[in-house]
Amino acid sequence: MNLINTSILTAISTVIKVLSGFFINKLIAIYIGASGLAMIGQFQNFIAIIKTLSTGGIDQGVIKYTAEYRDNPKKAQLLSTALFITFISSLILGIIIIIFSDNLSQKVLNSLEYINIFKVFGITIIFYAVNALMLSILNGHKEIKKFTIVNISGSIISLIFTSLLLFFYHLEGALYALILNQSILFFITLRFVVKSDWFNLKLFTLGIDKSSAIKLGKFTFMTIVSAMAVPMVLLFIRNYIGSNIGWDEAGYWQGMYYISTMYLLIVTTSLGVYYLPKLSEIEDKKELKREILNGYIIIMPIVTILALTIYFFRIYIIDIAFTKEFTPMLELFKWQLIGDVIKIASWLLGYLMLAKAMTKVFIITEIIFGIIFALLSVIFLNSFGLVGVTYAFALNYTLYLIVMSFIFRGVFR
After folding, report:
1. pLDDT of residue 79
2. In this predicted model, what pLDDT tens digit does every residue of 216-256 receive, in sequence order?
3. Contact 254, 95 (CB under 8 A)
4. Is the CB of residue 229 less than 8 Å from the CB of residue 362?
């Protein structure tokens, strides 16, 4: 299955996810407002960090090596090791979350009202983690149709579950929905994995293999740094906005970031589903270079058209996705969307670091550019107000693209 076919399937899944997300966002805007949306954003970033830690950060490694070892006996050692790492990581992390639920509630959500939410999260995190592992395995096997169906199922479950809990319990209900949706999806994903032609229970019962653990461990550092860097920077920026300008303003920025994330899912999902496994398989430098250039030819026009469409219809998007309360978001669109286009241009090169396990370079660049984004956001916020965050976003990814270009040249010398 090529990039175009993959993009079509993931586009269908993404459209459903976007429509589901917009409907949920509309309910959040109506029932809990801009400040509530900011709180949802804080908790989502916390969940993103925990999700990656709960799998031991091996998701991208599982995709890469499942694609490489598809017909190789090493696959059994890989999958068995991956399951062991995921089980132990999620178990330890779940216990920690339960023990420190009061501290986490205060630090993440600025209140002790939500202790039980963190306890439930700690109990269910194992389902969250194993579901993520199974999705990575399906991705590595290039079972795109199954992968797409699972994602569509997740969007529908999220829509129904979140809407009901949000309607009856408002903010607390929305927070519970965020942690329970993926746990429910676990059982759907499990059904598809068990019915796959390649599935054999013996693949997961060999315990831990040292060489497989070392290979996956390289991705642990890369994934955990990436998973920690981005959400922690977003947590920091959102908290800085809330503390220095206001939590409604933090909600406006969260709304803009949400729109940005949702429309780019068409592209980023395709990159994760097709691009990473494909680059991982290719050994010949000329073929690898051709695949990357092909990505630019197909992906960049799509991103540009999507960004322009969002910009020209921004007023209607705010009305549909939020409420009139969110009108101050209008000033955020221009530079956020410019930054989105530059971001994808840089990611097309950045995926090469994951595909070829360039651990040190990946970790260094993630940390440096995470810090740069945070610093630029603070500087520009103080100088230009809320719109300054979008200036920081665009400038940060421009610098990142320049660095990725130099790395790309180094690989193909």
Report:
1. 81
2. 877 777 677 766 777 889 889 998 998 898 888 988 998 89
3. no
4. no
Average pLDDT over residues 90-96: 93
Q: Which long-range contacts (CB under 8 A, 24 or more apart) does 198-207 make?
A: 198/70, 198/141, 202/76, 203/75, 203/76, 203/79, 203/80, 204/79, 204/80, 204/83, 205/80, 206/76, 206/77, 206/80, 206/81, 207/80, 207/81, 207/84
Query: Nearest-CA neighbor of 50 among 161, 233, 179, 147?
Result: 179
One-letter amino acid for residue 161 of the chain: F
pLDDT at 193: 83
Q: How far apart are CA 112 and CA 220, in angstroms?
A: 32
| Distance (Å, whole) CA 242 – CA 35 | 9
What is the rounded CA–CA span in Å between residue 150 and residue 148?
5
DSSP label at residue 203: G
Q: DSSP labels for 5-34?
A: HHHHHHHHHHHHHHHHHHHHHHHHHHHHHH
Q: Which two tokens stand for residue 154?
A: 């997740």
Cβ-contact 119, 246 below 8 angstroms? no
Nearest partner of 38 among 50, 25, 51, 49, judged by Cα: 25
Q: pTM for the whole thing?
A: 0.71
What percent of the chain stands above pLDDT 90?
25
AA identity, residue 308:
L
261, two tokens: 């994330």
User: What φ, ψ does residue 357 adopt, rounded to 5°?
Assistant: 50, 45
